[in-house]
Amino acid sequence: MDIEQRIKELEEEIKRTQYNKATEKHILRLKARIAYLKKELEEKKKKQKAQRAKGIKKSGDAMVSLIGPPSVGKSMLFNILTNAKSTVADYAFTTLEIHPGILKHKGAEIQLLDMPGLIEGASYGKGNGKEILSVARNSDLIMLVLDVYTVDYLEVILNELHNFGIRVNEKEPNISIKKKDRGGINVASTVPLSMDIESIKAIVREFGFVNADVLIKEDLNAERLMDFLSGNRTYVPAILVVNKIDLADEEFLREIKGKLHSWSPVFISAKYRTNLEKLKDEIFKASGLMRIYLKPQSGKIDYDAPLILKKGSTVEDVCKSLHRDFVRKFRYAMVWGKSVKFPGQHVGLEHKLMDEDIVRLVIRR
Ligand SMILES: Nc1nc2c(ncn2[C@@H]2O[C@H](COP(=O)(O)OP(=O)(O)O)[C@@H](O)[C@H]2O)c(=O)[nH]1
Ligand SMILES: [Mg+2]
């Protein structure tokens, strides 16, 4: 029997089974089996044809994809924020290709990608959905764009991303698993777990493990455990933008804000350029970038030309991005800013920097 059919059968079995305390474990096991089969299926398909988005090269300090339904104003926004041009029109599906453009902000060059609208069924390939979703998966940030009329469409978009294996604003599950030769499945944890150990073991077994040590470092649910075991999930940060606020009155806007409050969206009007500076700041922040100002031995700091690095970068990363000999010849660095206890503190290569820190490298000659 082929895998797809087996998945269907299992899904039907779940539907047939009444959910109660007695069947709970059985259902969980069926779900794990389905997740495992889906993983097998994906791997098989991947071998058949590599679904890579063609022609999109990462450039700049970060890559951000604009994801949203058709006609919400993605292209108009993209045209205002970047140096590139994309077609804007009154009818749906004006953007048939993927357009890259550069947004310059706070000294960073952020590559934005204007994309066709994402529609229901995209994760199954509808409307070039797989191509769009592969690009989204490879970006540093997903910018979800809606307008005031399509707020309820957020669920659809999130569902398509989820189906495609993209997890937004979620951390990677903090688990490790080691195969071994004997001893069965062993589960240890560093925190109290809500799931019971037997269920965890059953799921791990469904994914083909016979002997393994599982170390769990967060209180996870069954879904996150299966995500981890499936191994092909991508964890991407996302922000939400609601466009066309010029078309909503105060009451309508308040209703929308209520619905979306857990997202803290940025409300904008591309047409009237409302709130775009705030949006740029949010994009910068959520792209995981930071600015480091270099203090030369003599002369002034150039605040217009920060070094742009990924958040969490160290003094060593600064050295590497400046000159390949700097790590070898490094003596110490002096740092002013949020990452140190007092101004001008001496630190080593492993010191983690923070946004807007000032760094002076002291290098052996
Ligand atoms: N009123 C208003 N219309 C907008 C705004 N942004 C875009 N539009 C209009 O919405 C339509 C669709 O825009 P487009 O950028 O092509 O949407 P896309 O399909 O998401 O790329 C066009 O007619 C735009 O002029 C806005 O902020 N306010
Ligand atoms: Mg468009």
UniProtKB/TrEMBL annotation:
CDD domains: DRG, TGS_DRG. Keywords: GTP-binding, Nucleotide-binding. The keyword GTP-binding applies. The keyword GTP-binding applies. Gene3D superfamilies: 3.10.20.30, P-loop containing nucleotide triphosphate hydrolases. InterPro entries: Beta-grasp_dom_sf (IPR012675), DRG (IPR045001), G_OBG (IPR031167), GTP-bd (IPR006073), GTP-binding_2 (IPR031662), GTP1-OBG_CS (IPR006074), P-loop_NTPase (IPR027417), Small_GTP-bd (IPR005225). It comes from the Archaea. GO terms for molecular function: GTP binding; GTPase activity. Pfam families: MMR_HSR1 (PF01926), MMR_HSR1_Xtn (PF16897), TGS (PF02824). This is Small GTP-binding protein. It comes from Aciduliprofundum boonei (strain DSM 19572 / T469).
